[in-house]
Here is the input.
Amino acid sequence: MTNAHTDLAPAWTTSIPRHWCWMRNKELLFEAQTLSKDGSEELLSVSHLTGVGPRSEKNVTMTEAESLEGYRVVEQGDLVINTMWAWMGALGVARHAGIVSPAYGVYRPRPSAPFGLRFFDYLYRSTEYVMEMTRVSRGIWSSRLRLYPEVFLRMAVPVPPLEEQRAIADYLDRETARIDTLIEEQQRLIEMLRERRSAMITQVATRGLDDAPLIDSGNIYLGDVPAHWKVSRFSREMSVNGGQVDPRDNPWADMVLVAPNHIESGTGRIIGRETARAQGADSGKYLASAGQILYSKIRPALNKVTVATEDCLTSADMYAMSSTHGDDHRYLMYFMLARPFHAFVTLASLRVKMPKVNREELGEAPFLLPPVEEQRRIRAYLDDQTEKIDALITEAVRLIELSHERRSALITAAVTGQVDVRKVV
Here is the structure.
């Protein structure tokens, strides 16, 4: 292979090895436009995470069209690009024959073209090449960019000899598999830590820290509780704020507005801080005071509960509430995060038309109340223990992020010749 077409070298990568060459995509591929006659072929899905594969094997939530007649036919080895999502990397070389939406681009290797399927699957999906496709895509808004066929086919691509393409793909298969295994291990660790966190909260918030005598409460939902604890109902122990304010008016517009999406599931942490004005709020909101409990009443966010760190507004999808007897609000938060309470309100939310738990149903929720001093000890213990678990989760998440970054950098380096795989053992 010659070093011809060096004038095509784009700015997205450094120089390639001297024995590689630059070619335009149209020299390797042509647009395939065969359409399905009856839509009976297997429907394929294109993902920025997993590339191209059978839709039946992927978790796709979009509704399938009633008829697939006229969908584009894909042969094994075709490059498929979601024209509207190329900027996200929604493309890949098909390992299965099938059909895709007529809005997608399907590109077939030219006969005798030096097109190694696995190598180019890595190259086209590499971070650097996706960024180059984004740069040449057209559209006013970033979320509406489109990579049109004539633009893609004019793009340049580095082409090593076929034997080296296979060696690079083998190298990347091996190395990315190792990284993917590490990522999967960290994901399993995170799941285990979250499970441990939830189990610990449930155990301590509903059973306490001491080896106190247990009694049978006669309530299947609560099971046995320490004999000196109070068994009550939510409506008897909690007062829910009422009355709404207009978030467009002063001083409400500049107050922080908390909605379910600002609370992390199962942890009690607030993960976003924006004012009502910044969120463009224009419908009635509830006032909450610092230290009050904020609880999401909509399914599936019924395990989102926190303690307000400042005076704020809450969306109509939340309850702002306080103990009527001076109980420790962080203990109450932990109790509401415990599995029995979550199970009760979830079941209650299924009994109404809207996917939420209303005040009447919430008011019937059983409530466990240790003496206030014991509540504070439980809260302090759970604060300490959950902080340790959360630190481990944060560390695992960071390792996953670094692994993804290493994976991306490794692929880019290999497909641009910065790693000579012929010298890698």
